[in-house]
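Bug #77: duplicate submission created two jobs. Keeping one. Sequence:
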Amino acid sequence: MKSGIVLGGAMVLASVLFAHGQVAASDRFAAMVGELRPKAEAAGISPATFEAAFAGLTVDARVIALAAAQPEFTQTIGAYVASRANDRTVAAGRALAQRWAGELDGIERRFGVDRFVILALWAMESNYGQATGGSDVIRSLATLACCTSTRPDYFHDELMAALRILDQHEIAPRAMTGSWAGAMGQTQFMPSSYLANAVDGDGDGRRDIWTSVPDVLASIASYLAMHGWERTARWGYEVRLPAGFDFTAITPHEGGPVRGWQQLGIARPGGSSFPDDGAKAWLLLPAGAHGPAFLTLQNYWVIKTYNVSDAYTLAVGRLADRIRGEGALSTPWPPGERPLPRAVVLAMQQELVARGFPIDIVDGKIGPSSRSALRAFQASQGLSADGYPTAAVLARLGLPQP
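Kept job's structure:
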């Protein structure tokens, strides 16, 4: 009986604390809206727009919970790419390429951006417009600005940008929907990106990334063009490395460009239009020495501005190539790969630093600095210096296998 009383008391206490947290968040939400009103008016946003934007809105507890979560990446890059560039998505992309061929012709002439990359980004961001998120963008951004500890100033600025969009009568307040984090419509633009990059593709005087496919396609192309897309160039190519390739002879993917790639024995892709040997390119080894290799061009980095993940960017490139009509990779992804848990990556980083291989940020995520440290450690151990955390690397560091 006593344990039941204790349990019941704990449940009551938890309910009280949750309710208190909700009240506190609601108070912060209301206070933030009150403080924002004169700032919005000073920025030229009409009182009518402001009132319509916040009419009936309250704090969104779901957004607070999602912002506090730290999901772990649970797929290898090969599995991620394969799951995005799958047969269903490729077939849908090819059908849509035919359906919107006329619009894509005009977009390519205007912006010089590869139509297949446009289609691939559309697929990645919203499944060709089928999954745009149903959150109220104003409510989400206001909640993130007032009630989460991560980048409140950033979300405050995005909220102001969203109000400018409403004040320009591009969309009605409650029709401005998107992800819980404020990314909008079929392109998943943040409001500031919308203001900078969205265009009217169908000539109706509005930039409608929610329901107008011509606007969606043209806005993606506009974004890429404004971020430095190189006309007539591809994002990159799969290449073949010679047996015993010396990874220390080049500056790898994260560090800088590869020149003279043919002199290093890297084979030109058969039948491709890859640029000459002096072209600026980067070697990408997403699964290490035993997986596929890519020479990526400037447009790879342009795609990466949409999402900084290499997995995402490579998935866009591969999906674009498959919609274009290309087949499977000539070098398959290594079988039996498993993603490293963040705790293992963190332990690896700590051990590398302890052994004198510096890493800028020890956070359980493998970035450029971690790969540089890995390459240096691998070279010191006589291993292939590909910057990939293999089982052999973990063993040499004295770490258990995941």
